[in-house]
Amino acid sequence: MRHTLALTSLLAALAPVAAGGDFVFDLDFDASSIDWGGDTSLGPMVMTPPTFHLQGTVELSLATGGSPVGGGQLISGGDATVVPDLHAEVTAPPPLPPWLSFDLAGVHYVFGSDPFGVSATGDFTATNLTVTTTAGTLTLSLAGGTPLVFDMTGLSFNSGDAAGTIVETGGSLRIEVPIDIDASLTDPTTGLHIDLFMLGTLVGEVACALPSTYCQTSPNSVGAGALISSSGGTSITANELVLECAGLPSGQFAIFYYGPDQIAQPFGDGVRCVGGSALRLPPRPTGAGALSFSLDHSALPAGGELEAGDAAQFQCWYRDPSAGLSGFNFSDGLSVTFCP
């Protein structure tokens, strides 16, 4: 897609798109490589280097319902830096200086797109893929004359529709999106015309965060206290998270419950670690002193549905009449951030 722009003007920056389930992908520096080249009304450009890389992050809003995700959208919350700074020139016969020197320095990009669906094999087409400059300068020198410096902040290019993939590999989500941009720049003062292209791939990964414990357990009638843990993954689509608790008194009942906030409030014989609007999961017998519960996302309590990007705090409450105190106690807490 080709654009004609006055070098002294700036296009509006891409507006942020509000959405839930947002994930920051770390760019794969080696894989995120972009070839660039160009031509001018003075002659062809020689690029140094001919390939650059993108370093930093891109941000996506992801939706569940597929394998590994049901949909997504590139949103303008990341920060991708062009590495290294770029130089190009239109050479003149020696010993004359270049007809044109073209330098890009300190360039940072954000990426955006319309919402897109993702197939069962991870394929998608991102429509209106947009690359917007959030920082950087363009310096032009004509035949060794006084350099002209332009602020590139807000300069935006549309890569059109891009067919990419998002797949799960080793507990991480990996996205690959092709970048294909043609741009025409025109200086209305000198009549200088520059055609540029960028062609390459944007590649990033985000790891699903491992659950982590917080707060504290408290001694009970059988030992130092109950400890919460988990097995399986945090993917909502895979639906395989298992909550576990050990160190419980045998022959009693217990429940797992969850909510949005981490707290540490003395209650009963222990410490309540989950705050906010807490929701209980069905009670289970403690058996010989351990409990497990498979969290089924299709059967969560009303109002307690969990989505990609949600952080939920879990804790085990259990009966302990033998302790001779309040008759109930708590485990420590478990914080879980859910992936698509």
Describe the structure.
By secondary structure, the chain is an all-beta fold. It has a 15-stranded mixed β-sheet that branches. Strands 16, 19, 22, 23, 25 and 26 form a 6-stranded antiparallel β-sheet that branches. It folds into 2 domains: 4-207; 212-337, Immunoglobulins (Immunoglobulin-like, Sandwich). It is built from no helices and 26 strands. It has strands at 4-6, 22-27, 33-40, 43-44, 46-48, 51-63, 71-83, 86-90, 100-112, 116-117, 123-142, 148-151, 156-169, 172-186, 193-207, 212-214, 227-231, 242-246, 253-259, 261-267, 270-275, 279-280, 284-285, 290-294, 311-319, 328-337. The model is unreliable at 1-20 (pLDDT under 50). The protein is elongated. It starts with a strand and ends with a strand. The protein is 0% helix and 58% strand. Strand 6 and strand 7 (71-83) form a beta hairpin.
Keywords:
340 residues, mainly beta, Immunoglobulin-like, 2 domains, six-stranded antiparallel beta sheet, 26 strands, disordered N terminus
* Biggest pleated-sheet summary: 15 strands, mixed
Number of strands: 26
The count of helical stretches stands at 0
Q: What value does the Rg take, in angstroms?
A: 28 Å
Percent strand: over 45%
Shape: elongated
Identify low-pLDDT runs. Answer: 1-20
- Give, in order, the helices and strands: EEEEEEEEEEEEEEEEEEEEEEEEEE
- Helix content range of the residues, please? under 10%
Structural class based on helices, strands and sheet pairing = mainly beta
Distance between the termini: 33 Å
Count of discrete structural domains = 2
- Provide the residue-averaged pLDDT: 89
